[in-house]
Every structure is written in structure tokens, then in C-alpha cells.
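Onboarding guide, step 5: your first structure request.
Type a short instruction followed by the sequence, for example:

Predict the 3D structure of this protein.
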Amino acid sequence: MSRAPEVPNRRLLLKGAVAAGALAATPTVAEAAPIPTPHPKRAAPLVNPLVRNRADPYIHRHSDGFYYFTATAPEYDRIILRRSRTINGLATADESVIWTKHPTGVMGAHIWAPEIHRVGGKWYVYFASAPAESVWDIRIWVLENANPNPFKGSWVEKGQIRTAWETFSLDATTFTHRGTRYLAWAQHEPGLDNNTGIFLSRMANPWTLTGHQIRLSTPEYDWECIGYKVNEGPSVIARNGRLFMSYSASATDWHYCMGLLTADSDADLMNPASWSKSPTPVFTSNDTTKQYGPGHNCFTVAEDGRSDVLVYHARQYKEIVGDPLNDPNRHTRVQKLGWHADGTPDFGIPVADTATDTEVVS
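The system replies with C-alpha cells like these:
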């Protein structure tokens, strides 16, 4: 997820103060698994940007036939929800505010990167926030709604997800693999000279970790350390006998990009040695298509029930005045996710904006 806006001595804050202080229930992984349909529809051409001014997007395709969409609002003050029977329909779907930050105390600032999941017959939203009086003490929180319709019922605050350390932590996602539910997230590990790494733990229930947590990745390559040393925004898709975990790296300007971790599906996911890391980024800014800072992605499936779709945010320009996180123009984007012959994902490049009626199409 996006990191804190620039404030005086923020780098010292993250290295000092913060360091002192880190689905649908499918048989495999989150919303990535295709939903079988008796009469598959042809996947419609995707339109971009899909939703403007919504960063850190998350799209959940549910068994009721709807796509549910949530993302970070640029005011960082609320959690929004849309739904549509098509991916493109999310662009114009009505948007509801399902939860608003507290005026004081915990969950009072920096409402970031919500994800909506269906677990055990209930809806859950995972998000990051900080106390209103200490806006960089960001942690992971959970909401629960027992109503079959997430636009109805009550969203109950289940509390903070307690990790091994009380440090800067955010960007939680949950998935199941072989009957076990996991949480992956980003956190600052005390004693390390970075902002955040990627961590994994089993879950006792949708708001509680169990057992030990492991570090899967820490910023080590040059492309992960531009501006800030960041690994964040994990998302998982299971295909071809492997689990693939994408994540985002570097500052949230045009250097923002995506990396990839891979594990065999029969491996012990809680053994760090089971995961390999790509030494090069898999998705980066592109001057030809004029898309910059692509990242904080998730995966969903097209209306045909078979085609994988990459969901992410990017800007339409490279130069930013002031701090990138004060710039609201990170738009939600979608495109087909391809697959290489060796069974690994082919992210391609961030596609160009969709031509409008007023544009000349060559």
C-alpha cells in the first residue's frame, strides 16, 4: 500500500520512531481462482482507467455474480464499496461509504488499502490506519459484517491484527491454501535498515494470527530501494502447481514497481526457503503507454470465468509536484494477465489509456 506522505524528518521517523514502536473461502487462493460458469460469457474488452482517483484497488468476484470493489480514497478518511456484474461496470457503479475514520483515537487517520474478503459466511475488510493523534503509528485493522449483502447490516470493528512487533504495518491480504488460511502483509522489522518487508503467518480466525510469522522478502535490489526501501502490497494467485505472490517496491512516484515471489504448491509455505524471489521487477512504468508507478495490485478473473485479470493503480504522468502521496491521481487500472510457457505469470506492460469517442484511433 502507499506509504506515509512526506513530513519533516519522515525518514528519521521510519528508521527511528517507527522502528522503536510493524475471501471468498475457496480451496486455493483468494479471488484468484476462476469461478466455473455453466455458460461462460466472453470477456469484455477492459476499459482504462477503470476507476479514477482510487489507489490500492481490490476487486473480489463473489459467487453471487457480482464484482465487489474497494480502494484507498485520496482523502484517506473512509472505506468505500462498489459492485457490478461486470468489471467495466465498476467504473460507473454507485459508491457507498461503509465505514468512516474515528474523530479521535485509533483508526483516526491514514485509512489505507482496504481489501474485502468473504470468509466463513461473513464479510471482512482488512485495512491500515493510525491514531488521530499519532498519524504514522500505522497498524492493520479488521471489520466484520455478517449480512450476506455487504452494503447492508453492520460493520463491526474486530480490532487490530497483532503481529510480532508493534511497528509500522499495513497492506494485509488473506488467502487459503490446502485448507489453511494465511495472512500476508508489510511491516517494518526492528533492527533492519528499511521501511517494510513482506511477512506471512497462519491465522486462527479472520482477525487473529497463530504460530510464528516469517519474513518472505526485504528490500535488497536497487529497484526496491529508490526513494524508500519498500516491499509492500502483497497479493497471491495460484496457478500451474505454484503460488505467486506479487508485491510493490520503492517510493510511490514513477519508480514504484512490482516484484514477484514464487513457491511450489506442495511446499511448506511457512518455510522462507520455499519462496524464491525474482531479481528483476515484473511490472514497471512505461514511457510508451504513459503509465507511471504501477503497483499495489490484486488479481481477479474476467466474466468468462477463465481469463485472469491484473488490477493495479498507476498515474498518467511522470512528474509530480510535492509529495506523491498528496497527489490524488493514482487511478485503478485493469488488464489481462498472461502466462509464459513455463507457467509463470506474464504481467506485460501497463496498457495505454482506452481511446474515447473524441480521440483519433490509429
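Each response can be followed by summary notes, for example: Confidence is low (pLDDT under 50) at residues 2-28, 30-36, 357-362.
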